[in-house]
Design a protein that fits this description.
heterodimer, A: alpha+beta, B: alpha/beta, 4-stranded antiparallel sheet, 7 helices
């Protein structure tokens, strides 16, 4: 490419071109100085900002998943508050049936109806005995718990150790080592992999749990759990008119179930109302046909576990009073039977909020709890800053099907206490960048001067090129390349000098401090100023803006070069 | 019928001055065919070089039309014509002083982005032909006037043009130096089967061409064929 070659030949200082050589050298030096100044200034201020951010992150975490105001007025919040009091030990009937202790008996199980035998006899002729259901549960083909929309807290005592390499290390890391092996089914898909990969897998919703190192400076646990509702059931179907009223009194949930008698507690003051019970399928729906409507029993209903403490038993029956759709229309009564219990709700506990699968909840021992509830501020997400934006997107995408309006993410710079500071920093940065652009433009005016003189001095040579067939575009390209070359040379030299300066910044500051008799950039305000690294975004910004401006300066000089009268220049 | 390489029809050149327009020449019509050798003589300031520049598309005519191989000039890419169809030899040589002989000769090839072993070979052939084999890598600023004009001749021929425009090719040379240059020019033109349009004020040189035109008082007259 002769344009490049010609542009290069124009830039090489020559004895016969003293003025251009001097102006060109000045242009390079000025750009070098500007690039150095911009890079040192922005890299240093970014260093300060980074240190402030690290301190802020050490308190708030890089990102939090926090409940939104609608969450606090939603039934989920109420359920979560109840769930907080729940016993989370595994109470699966199927597990009791598959691995019963020698002394275990269905008839003595407190979770089952006391009149089981009688009930069985009375329903034997209906061909819907309890054993039919039990056998179905026993066969494990009925995923009767897997649909649960269960959210509970998951806490990890200490993640200071190195990233786990094996499954046992993972379980240890997650505080699960004391859990029985068969309770760790949910971990079986987690092969010994790096935490980073695990994180990615969690993004892709392939695993339920992931954990990351936590910062030792914070006595907080950093856990990220994801929950994926598999579409096998739902707690609150939409578009229904049935009503189930519950109230909470003396740490007990009271519901208006009319039968059996143990639950016929009159409703005092409803604490909240679930308005969306399906007319055809009550509260918790099973899409599995095996637990569908049973004639004589009603619809299968799964209740929150705490109700078992209130005396509710499997196969207990009751009805919902469902308001009619129009004024004066008769209420409907929907029969149901208790098909199981579930760990309910989305649960903010402690300073974090964890979302996980039912299996995880069942597996985690309650004694891992970090010592009682404190004010909820959401789940801390400990991710590198560069990953926050992508995590945010993935989180919102994944929660869309669960509770889109109830939870949101909040980055460390979006917190109430920091948002003003970061707004201010951002505006200052924009202002300084604008000022930098102006300074760079002024610096690049030297390139324009140099190339303008060059276009005049080399007019004969330009005329020769034109006479030999060079187009105006080619001539313009020569000058744009020349401008770009000067700009790049200056900015690269400036970058090198800035790197050296930043490397020796502490010594430099100390020297200036000694010269002026007092400490420069006091440690109490700015923290310890160690060796600074060159800010990559600033480097890109500097090189890009200088390149654009110098190419522009080359372009302006090219206009002059292209206007040369070829015939006159050849004869002159 | 074969189209002329270049056909000028009623061209004129008028310069705008502070007082009134100055007409350098007007109503000039001229056709140059392949293999023609044409000279244009006249006193200094008559517009010979301007006419050459107009025919070589370096400068536009004020009025009239120019056709290249039967096509209106305005419809053609003039840079391509100057690069591939025409070759130029100037009185002041107009070489790139800081480049060597080979680089100067290959300059039109670089501009046309046609660098290839063929053109490198041809450049070396032309260097041999103009007798500068030993000066191939010498910067042209170190060459004598005669040598520079030899480089210019080789450069004009590198793209195998259809016509050479030579503007006072011996104007800056003494008679001893000029003689072999003229011989070289005509021999080369003959060898390369190229047309030649030569501007000179030397009658002897003019007489070496098949057609001799005289530009006098703004009018071009065919003097001898």
């Amino acid at each position: 490419m002769y344009e490049l070659k010609t542009a290069f030949s124009y830039l090489v200082p020559r004895r016969g071109q003293l003025s251009i050589s001097v102006v060109g050298s000045i242009a390079v030096l000025v750009i070098l100085a500007i690039a150095w100044l911009v890079l040192v200034f922005f890299s240093t201020t970014e260093g300060f900002e980074r240190r402030w951010s690290e301190k802020i992150i050490s308190v708030l975490g890089p990102m939090q998943i926090v409940p939104t105001p609608p969450y606090y007025s939603s039934p989920h919040c109420q359920l979560d508050l109840f769930s907080e009091k729940m016993n989370r030990s595994a109470q699966r009937l199927s597990s009791k049936l598959t691995s019963p202790s020698p002394s275990y008996s269905l008839y003595d199980d407190p979770a089952l109806p006391p009149d089981l035998e009688q009930w069985y006899e009375s329903h034997a002729q209906d061909q819907h005995p309890i054993f039919t259901i039990s056998q179905k549960l026993h066969s494990e083909k009925v995923p009767w718990r897997t649909f649960e929309s269960t959210v509970s807290h998951l806490c990890i005592p200490n993640l200071q150790s190195a990233p786990a390499q094996t499954l046992s290390q993972y379980t240890s890391l997650l505080g699960l080592s004391s859990i029985r092996k068969d309770e760790m089914d949910f971990l079986k898909d987690i092969s010994p992999i790096e935490v980073e990969t695990l994180l990615q897998m969690a993004y892709d919703q392939k695993v339920d749990i992931l954990a990351r190192d936590y910062v030792s400076a914070i006595d907080q646990i950093k856990v990220i759990t994801t929950h994926k509702i598999e579409g096998k059931g739902q707690i609150i179907p939409s578009g229904t008119k049935a009503t189930l009223s519950l109230c909470y009194e003396n740490n007990q949930l009271i519901a208006n179930f009319k039968t059996p008698s143990s639950l016929s507690i009159p409703l005092t003051q409803p604490l909240f109302t679930i308005l969306s019970v399906s007319l055809h399928r009550p509260i918790v729906l099973l899409k599995n046909d095996s637990l569908a409507y049973v004639p004589g029993l009603g619809y299968p209903l799964l209740l929150s576990k705490h109700m078992r403490k209130q005396g509710v038993r499997l196969l207990d029956r009751g009805t919902f009073d469902v308001a009619g759709s129009g004024i004066g229309s008769d209420p409907l009564t929907i029969p149901f039977y208790v098909a199981g219990f579930f760990d309910s709700g989305i649960l903010p506990i402690g300073s974090r909020l964890a979302i996980t699968s039912a299996r995880a909840v069942i597996a985690i021992q309650p004694e891992l709890s970090p010592g009682g509830p404190i004010a909820s501020s959401g789940l801390i997400i400990d991710l590198p800053r560069k990953d926050l934006a992508s995590f945010e997107k993935k989180f919102h995408r994944s929660i869309e099907s669960i509770a889109p309006t109830l939870f949101t993410t909040k980055r460390f710079d979006q917190h109430e206490t920091t948002i003003e500071l970061y707004h201010q920093l951002s505006s200052e940065k924009t202002l300084f960048r604008l000022i930098s652009c102006i300074i760079i433009a002024v610096a690049c005016s030297n390139i324009f001067s140099m190339l303008f003189i060059l276009a005049h001095d080399r007019r004969k040579e330009i005329a020769i090129l034109r006479a030999l067939g060079a187009t105006k575009k080619s001539i313009a390209a020569i000058f744009i390349i020349a401008g770009l070359g000067v700009g790049l040379l200056g900015s690269l030299l400036g970058s090198g000098l800035a790197t050296v300066t930043l490397h020796y910044l502490p010594e430099l500051l100390s020297l200036i401090g000694k010269m002026q008799g007092q400490e420069l950039l006091q440690q109490t305000l700015y923290g310890e100023i160690g060796e600074q690294s060159l800010s990559l975004p600033t480097l890109l910004f500097t090189i890009f803006s200088i390149s654009i401006t110098s190419a522009l300066a080359g372009g302006l000089a090219a206009v002059r070069a292209c206007r040369i009268n070829v015939s006159q220049a050849l004869r002159g | 019928m074969q189209h002329p390489l270049i056909a000028a029809d009623n061209i004129s050149k008028i310069f705008e001055t502070a007082d009134e327009p100055f007409t350098l020449f007007e109503e000039i019509s001229l056709s140059i065919y392949a293999h023609d050798t044409i000279s244009c003589v006249g006193r200094s300031g008559e517009g010979k070089s301007t006419l050459l520049h107009i025919l070589g598309t370096i400068e536009p005519a004020t009025t009239g039309t120019i056709s290249i191989q039967g096509k209106e000039l305005s419809t053609l890419p003039v840079e391509n014509l100057r690069n591939s169809l025409f070759g130029f030899i100037f009185q002041s040589f107009h070489l790139l002083e800081d480049s060597d002989v080979l680089a100067n000769i290959l300059l039109p090839v670089l501009i046309a982005r046609k660098s290839s072993p063929y053109y490198t070979e041809r450049a070396h052939y032309l260097i041999d032909h103009v007798g500068l084999t030993k000066r191939t890598a010498t910067k042209t600023k170190f060459l004598s006037g005669g040598e520079k004009q030899r480089v210019a001749i080789a450069r004009a021929l590198i793209m195998e043009p259809h016509i050479i425009f030579a503007d006072e090719p011996t104007g800056n040379l003494d008679s001893l130096t000029a003689e072999p240059i003229v011989e070289l020019l005509f021999n080369t033109v003959r060898a390369e089967s190229t047309a030649l349009f030569l501007v000179t004020h030397q009658q002897e040189l003019s007489k070496m061409c098949q057609k001799q035109y005289v530009l006098d008082k703004g009018h071009l007259t065919l003097f001898e064929t």
